[in-house]
Amino acid sequence: MKSSETLLVDISGGVMALTMNRPGANALNFEMIAALQTAFKQAARDLSVRCVLLTGSGHVFSAGQDLTDVQKAQGESYRAHLLRTYNPLIGQIRELEKPVVAAINGPVAGAALGIALACDLRVAADTARLVVGFSGIGLAPDSAVSLFLPLLVGLGRATEYAFTNEPISAEQALRWGLVNQVVLAGELNQLAWELAERLAQGPIQAMGLAKRAFNKAVLGNLAQILDYEAHLQDIAGKGAEHQEGVSAFLEKRTPHYQKAGS
Ligand code: T3D
After folding, report:
1. Residue 136, Cβ neighbours under 10 Å: how many?
2. Cα(242) to centroid of ligand 1, in Å?
3. What is the DSSP letter of 62?
4. C-beta of 248 in contact with ligand 1 (< 6 A)
5. In 19, 42, 103, 109, which residue has its Cα 20 to 30 A from 25's Cα atom?
6. What is the best residue among 6, 87, 131 to mutate for testing ligand 1's pocket, by most ligand atoms within 8 Å of CB?
7. Helix %, strand %, coil % of the chain (to 5)
8. Is 199 among the domain residues?
9. Residue 145 pLDDT > 60
10. pLDDT of 104 over the 70 cut
11. For residue 77, what is the domain's CATH number?
């Protein structure tokens, strides 16, 4: 598979390294999501790929959905959008019976947080910040964030984290169990690559079967939750709060939800 401008792909030593690469915080547009879906398809069928390593270029992992695209794509319902974008992608990551490592090189928000949480292991730079993001623009969690978050950090913390939208540091994410390791930002690429290579040299059939068992044990309702999130996002996406949240973000001002009429 060739790299595209939005997704750099490099396969060597059994590792497929995927780098999200867009100006403006590697925000996800349809082209990048489609490129990720294609890459995960290839990772599934290419026997030379034994591990996937996902990161972002520059100083941000990814800011989630490109909010300038959200304003342009008024024609498509959020449900339809999620059914062709994040929902299948999250499913692909969980169904890939090979290890998937996220190297979180900087801020991660929204759907990109869901993508990172769907990965098997997360290594974060000490400078990374994890942001739920959705409530910041008047949305409900999607991309299985409503499943992964309570699973990993407990319902109380997940609720507080989602409602307040306060970013958490890499160290706090480590304490909460959201990431597996925190390393110096300057060493992240090297250390994450070494981890991915080590995994690629291991018994990946056994790891794949372990992943299948974990999916069955704690993520048996993943497809249902993704579908329900799409339904809820359709409601939120039509609401005045979301309009106000996106306008405020693009105008770089504080949103005024009380005036948004809910
Ligand atoms: O079906 C559907 O479409 C609904 C699905 C939604 C899924 C979602 O992902 S919703 C959540 C969307 N994401 C967010 O709301 C996150 C918004 N961004 C942030 O919170 C922060 O930007 C970050 C924490 C990610 C990074 O903060 P920081 O301080 O490191 O960078 P910054 O200065 O805020 O951003 C850098 C640039 O990226 C900036 O542009 P500028 O001023 O340099 O021209 C900023 O506007 C741009 N940017 C950041 N996030 C997005 C974005 N541009 C487009 N879309 C974004 N999401």
Report:
1. 19
2. 15
3. B
4. no
5. 42
6. 131
7. 55, 15, 30
8. no
9. yes
10. yes
11. 3.90.226.10
| Cβ 130 under 6 angstroms from ligand 1 | no
Ligand 1 centroid vs 17 CA: distance in angstroms?
A: 23
Chain position carrying tokens 């990048």? 32
- The CB of 82 under 6 Å from ligand 1? The reply is yes
State the residue range of the domain holding 259: 1-186+204-262
Distance 27 CA to ligand 1 centre (A): 7
Ligand 1 pocket, residue 193 CB under 6 Å: no
Is residue 198, in this structure, part of any structural domain at all? Answer: no
Q: Which amino acid is at 216?
A: K
pLDDT one-digit tens code per residue, 114-132: 999 999 999 999 999 999 9
Q: What is the DSSP code (8-state) at residue 63?
A: -
> What's the DSSP call for residue 61?
S
pLDDT for residue 4: 81
Cα dihedral: 209, 211, 212, 214 (round 10): 130
pTM exceeding the 0.85 threshold for the entire prediction: yes
* Assigned domain for 218 exists: yes
